[in-house]
Write a structure and sequence with these properties.
6 strands, alpha/beta, six-stranded mixed β-sheet, 7 helices
Length: 223
């Protein structure tokens, strides 16, 4: 059985002031590989604590890091360090049995962004899986999946279980957040849409470059 960890960047609202895109990333691993990946990410977090001062026990929230907000505000982290972090995460996920898939929905299309994103992820499920995401998102995802399956719009079997977890307690949800942020920034670049004014262009460009690879896919749904 596989474990699929979901996280998003942007929001799924359609009202004025909502984000232009919704990026939903799924990090998929085999159950037997969980210890390996948790240990690998834990080691990376220890490296970041030693080199950048980011506490290993705190949630790694990538957008806040790039904006130097919250707990990152006073750490004095400079661009070379961020680029090193991006390279390190890239190398960490290059090998091993892991799949990272990002679906980005351009909300100007008028589509229901979360429904489009989650069904795109689940339209092909080669084996039973357990879906895991942070609190608040899972009930909406369950409803959308059950409705689509009932109406015949989801032909593959839905996940065996959908589990809620606090994102701060899951290294793999935080990894999904990292790649969702990268996917959102890539969509900004491709659609010539400005990202946050406080974000450094070199860092955003580096993030957008890591969305594809041997075990990574990226797809932008647009009008």
């Amino acid at each position: 059985m596989d474990l699929i960890y979901f996280d998003e960047s942007g929001d799924d609202g359609l009202r004025p002031g909502a984000s232009r895109f919704l990026a939903l990333t799924a990090v998929r691993i085999q159950c037997a590989e969980w210890i390996h990946w948790d240990s690998s990410i834990r080691s990376l977090r220890n490296e970041l604590e030693a080199s950048l001062g980011i506490p290993s026990r705190c949630e790694l929230h990538t957008r806040e890091l790039l904006l130097r907000k919250g707990r990152y505000k006073d750490l004095g982290i400079r661009t070379p360090a961020i680029l090193g972090l991006i390279d390190r995460m890239n190398s960490l996920t290059t090998g091993g049995e892991i799949s990272i898939k990002s679906i980005v929905v351009d909300k100007s299309s008028g589509l229901h962004p979360l429904r489009v994103a989650i069904l795109s992820h689940l339209k092909e499920t080669p084996m039973p899986c357990v879906a895991i995401s942070d609190r608040g998102r899972v009930p909406r995802m369950k409803q959308l999946i059950c409705t689509a399956y009932r109406d015949g719009k989801l032909t593959a079997s839905p996940p065996e279980f959908m589990l809620e977890i606090e994102s701060r307690d899951s290294h793999l949800v935080q990894m999904a957040d990292f790649f969702a942020t990268a996917a959102y920034l890539r969509a900004c670049v491709e659609m010539n849409f400005p990202f946050h004014a406080r974000m450094i262009a070199e860092e955003a460009a580096a993030m957008s470059r890591i969305t594809e690879g041997a075990n990574r896919t990226y797809h932008l749904v647009r009008p």
